[in-house]
Each structure stands twice: as structure tokens, then as C-alpha cells.
């Protein structure tokens, strides 16, 4: 009795090529049409895991974590520096969904940088900013601007402690004029002090004290009218 053999169907060539083209695991240099280059781990044809991306047009370099094709996790972003002759670190910290999110440090210049919290590529949360002129702001941020409670220390030693809104002094606060030995406590609107009191503060230790101390004024209020008005003002401010 003759034996018949079933011929196995051969797989189309394109399936084999497609399988070989699938990027999974560690790959060496993979170039895009734009000549951008990526070296690192892949999953289902997407950058996933540890990897380094180089954007040729801007010369930017990202080294760190990836998740399904996006920067996600801890990573460092650098740009070329002609003076140094090597990449200069611009940001080092956490990313989420291809944006700076979480704690990170951003360098804006040789002597100007921010360290603190980020959300969606913007400084938001707690952070400390070192400015090139020597000033330091430490406190709350929202949408890249000081917003909430914060302290600004100036290069000459003076400092402001209080409320901020949209990057400006807004609300109650205290300004220590340590160079002159005075303290102003009051209320600000868009960086302008609207009302408050000024007293001597550390005048004997101040490098440039005022010529005369602030005289103490005794207010006579036998009927308690002023005291009652102040109490009503404080209650209104709290509400």
C-alpha cells in the first residue's frame, strides 16, 4: 500500500521578515529616518527599559528609563555645549509620560538652577531656585512661578517671608531689611506693600543702619475703639 505524505505549507517570506524586524530586548544602534539614534531596550517595537536617545537636529541626549516609547522613570537630559566641548547636563530627575514629573534638578545657566518638584514639565510643588544674581527662593511653586508660602533671600542678606501669587508677593508677609536693621510686616499686592508697620530689628548689628531709630508711639485709646476695629479687621482677614 503506497504511503502518501502531506506537504507542509511553507510560511510566506514576509512573515519571517516581519518577525525579524520586531524589536524586543536589548538592541544596538537603531536609526530613525530623521537620523535620530537610540541604543537600549525595546518591547513590542517601543522603547521600554533602559536606553539612550540622541536627537541629531538639536544634539540633545537623554539617558535613562523608558516606558512604552516615552521617557518614564529616572533620566538625564543633556545638550551640546560649544565652550565645554561636551554635552552639558540640563535636567536630571524623574519623568512621567515624556514630561518632567516628580523631583528633579534643572540647570538654566552656570549659576542658576532649580531643585524640587515638577509636574507636567513645570515647576510645581516645593522647590528651591538659585538665581544668577545671588538671590534664593525657597517655597511653593505652581506653573513655573512662586505660589503659596515661600521665602526669598537676597544676596545682601535681606529676605521676604510670606505669601506669593503668580510669582509676586501677594498677601501677608514680612520683609527683613537686615542691611538697615528694620523689619516691615504688612500686606502686599502684586509686589507692592500696601499697608503695614515698620520697626527696628537688629539695628545695632546692621552694616548700614538708619541714621535715627524709629520712635515708639504710644496710642491712647481709652474707649477701646481702635482695639475693637483691629479685632474686626483680623476676623475679616481670616474669613
Structural descriptors:
239 residues, mainly beta, Histone H3 K4-specific methyltransferase SET7/9 N-terminal domain, 15-stranded antiparallel sheet
Can you describe this structure in just a few lines?
The protein contains two helices and 15 strands. By secondary structure, the protein is mainly β.
Describe this structure in words.
This protein has about 240 residues and is mainly beta. The protein is about 10% helix and about 55% strand. It has helices at about 15-20, 225-239; strands at about 25-30, 35-45, 45-55, 60-65, 70-80, 85-95, 100-110, 110-120, 120-130, 135-140, 145-155, 160-165, 170-175, 180-190, 190-200. Strand 12 (about 160-165) and strand 13 (about 170-175) form a beta hairpin. The longest helix is centred in the last third of the chain and has 14 residues, at about 225-239. It is elongated, with a radius of gyration of 31 Å. The mean pLDDT is about 85.
